[in-house]
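Appendix B. Extra example for self-study. Work through it before the problem class; the solution is given directly after the inputs so you can check yourself.
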Amino acid sequence: MAAISLRGLTKVFATGVRAVDGLDLEVDDGEFVVLVGPSGCGKTTVLRMVAGLELITSGTVSFAGRVVNDVSPRQRDVAMVFQNYALYPHLSVYENIGFALSNQKVPRVELDRRVRDAASVLGLSELLGRKPRQLSGGQRQRVAMGRAIVRSPAVFLMDEPLSNLDAKLRVQMRSEVLRVQRAMGAATLYVTHDQTEAMTMGDRVAVLRGGVLQQYDAPRALYDHPANVFVATFIGSPAMNLYEAGLEAGGPAGTPAVVLGSQRVALPASGGQVAAGLAAYQGRKIIVGIRPEDLSLPESSASFASAASAASAGSPALSASFAPAGSPAVARLVADARVVEVLGSEQHVYFSVDATPVGGEGESAQDGLLAASAPNGVARLDPRVAVRAGTPSAERCGARVRPRGALMCRAGRKYHGPFGINVGRGHLPPVRCLRPATGR
Amino acid sequence: MTATLVPPDAADVHLAESRKERRKRERLEERDGVIPVQLYGLKRGTVSVMTSCCVLFAIFTLVPIAWIIVNSTKTQANIFGTFGFWFARPFEFFHNFRMLFEDVDDDGTYINWFGNTALYAVLGGVGATALAAFAGYGFARFQFRGSKVFFYIIIGALLVPIGAITLPLYLVYAKAHLINSIWGMILPSLVSPVGVYLMRTYIGLSVPRELIDAARIDGAGETRIFFKIALPLMVPGLMTVLLLSVVGVWNNYFLPLIIFSNNNLFPLTVGMGLWSQHATTSGDQNLYPLIVMGGLVTIAPLIILFLILQRYWRGGMLLGSIAN
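Solution. C-alpha cells for the complete assembly:
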C-alpha cells in the first residue's frame, strides 16, 4: 500500500484559478518523489494540500490507505521543510528542533536524546544554543531539516528547501538531504522547479504543468521517453532542440528521411518494428527532437571548414546523421554557429538552422531582424574542438546525430497550431512519441 | 556519520559577538548610514529652512513643559509675580511636593487620585492591550464569516467622538449601576479600536503565515501557537498599544467626569480640574503651586513609561527566521 496516495486531487481557488487538476500520484514507502514544474504549476499547492494547510476542492489524499482529507495538519503526522525555513526566530536551535516533540508531550529525557540525535545527524551539535539569526544560510536550512526529521515522520514534505542557498551549497546539500532521507526511510515528496535537482534526487519524478500531471516516471525514463513536447523540453539542460519537420520516404536503404527546413536527414536502417512505426508517419508533419549532447562534429572534419564545404554555399544548413552510435555518419545537418559558451568540461554551441523551432514553455516568437539571426538550436560539444561563432554564412557547424536523442512526436487529435503545441487551457493534448529503438 | 558532507559555513563575523560588541557595531553602522543631504539632491538653503521650522515647532511643544518645571519651584506669589521662564527665590519645590499629600479644602488628596489613575491606567491599559492582541491576531491571521465587516465596524468606531455618545453612555451606565464604580471607568478603557487596528497591521507584517503553518505541522494547537510563537513576535507592537492605551486612560478626563461624583474615586485629571476650579472661584491662596506641581507629577510616570518601553522597539525580530 502506497505511503502517500493522491487520487484526482484538484484545487480550484476562489478566484477561479484551477491550480491543480485531477492529480493522481502514489509514493511508496521510503521513496523519494520529486514534483517538478515551472513556477505557478501548482506543485506547492499539491504539497500544502498533502500537509493539510490547504483545503482540497476534490479528490483524496490518503496516507497508508487512510483518507486524511479532513484531518488537521497536527493530526496528520507529516513533517515539512518550508522554502524559507520558517524557523521560530525567538527560540534557540534546540527549542526549534524540539518544538514538535514538546507539543507531543514527549518526556524531557527522550526529547533531549532525540533532539541531540537529530542535531548530530545534521552537524548542528555545536549550535544548539544559538538563535536562528546567529546562523548562516546553510545552518538555517539544516535546522529546518532537523525540525522535520526529529519526529521520524512517516511522510516527509519538502518545499524547495534548497532554493535559498547559493549554488555551491545547494549541490552539497542535495546529497545531504538524500542521505538524511535514506536514513529516515520516510516517503518523501519534494517540490522543486529545478530539473537538475529533480533528475539527481528523485527515485521518481512527477512533471507538472498548469496543475496537470504530464509524466510520472524514473528520471532516466523521463529523459529517454518524454511523454510529450513539454517534458521533452523541460527535462534536460540545455533543453532538447525541437523542430517542425516532415517524414518522407527515400533514405538510402528505403528508410524514411526527416525533412528539416531545406535539408533532408536520412534515417539509418533499423529494426523492422521501428521502421514500421515510422512508416505510419510518412507524409505527415512531425516534431523532431535532438538532444544537444547527441550532436557532434563529424569525425571526418577536425574543424568547421570541412563541414562548411559540405554545405551548399550561402544557405545555412546543418547535416546530421541518424546512424547507430559508432557507425559512420550517413547524413548531416549543416548550421551556422552563432554563440559559443565554453564551460570547461564542455562547450555549448548555439546555432541556427533553417527549420522552424518548436517552443517549449513560454518561448515567445521573435520577429523582425532578430528572428533572422537568432540561434534556434544548441549543441553540447567536446570543449577541445575549436568552434568559432560568426554571422550567417561565416562558419558552419556540421553535426552528427546519434539516434538515441532523436525523438519524434505527433500531435493528437485536438490541436490548434500545426502541431497542437499551443493550447490555451494550459496543458498539451496527448502527444505520442516515437523513438527509434536502435543503438542504445 | 559522514561529517565531511556537512558544508563548512561561511565565516560570519556577526554570529558569535557579545551584546556589547553588537551595540558598538550597530552604532557604527548607523553612522555609516548617515547620508549628507546634498546626496538627496536638496539645496542647503532648503535644508536650513526646514530645520528652522522643526526647531520652532519643537520649542512650541516644549515650552509648556519648561514652564511647568520652572514654576513647580515657586510660591503662589512668584508664579504670578516673576518671569515665567526663570527661577525665583524662595525655592519651594519640596514644599510644594509635600503639599500634594495633604487634603486641600476637603476635596481629597492628590496621592489618592494618583492611585486611582494608576489603577485605572494599569487595568485598562493592560486589558486593552491584551484584547487588542487577541482581536488583532484573529483579524490578521484568520478568515471567518464577517471578519471584514467586523473589522470595518471597529475602524468605524475610531471615527465616533466620545462627546457624541455621552448621553447614551450615561443612561446605560445608570441602568447598569456603573455610576461611581471603578468598573465604569475600566470597562470602556478595555476597548481600544486603535489598538486592534495597530495590532492587526503589526501582526500582518511581523508574524509570517509560514511560521504559523510550521507550528501547525509541528503539532501545536492554536492556543499554543498564539502564546508560544506569535506573542513573542508581537512584543514591539504590544508595547506601542500598551503605551497608547495607558496614556489614553491616564489622560481621560471626560469619562470620569460624567461617571464619578465621589471625590475619592476621581482620577488625577478630574481631581486637578476640581482644584483648578476652586483656585479660580474661592481664591484660595495656595492652590496654584499645588496645581503646577500636580501637573508635573502627573506627566512624569508617562515619560518614565515611555523610556522603559523604548527598549522593546527594536527591529530584527524576524532575523534568521524567514529566508528572503
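Self-check: Confidence is low (pLDDT under 50) at residues 1-13 of chain B. If your reasoning did not lead you there, revisit section 3.
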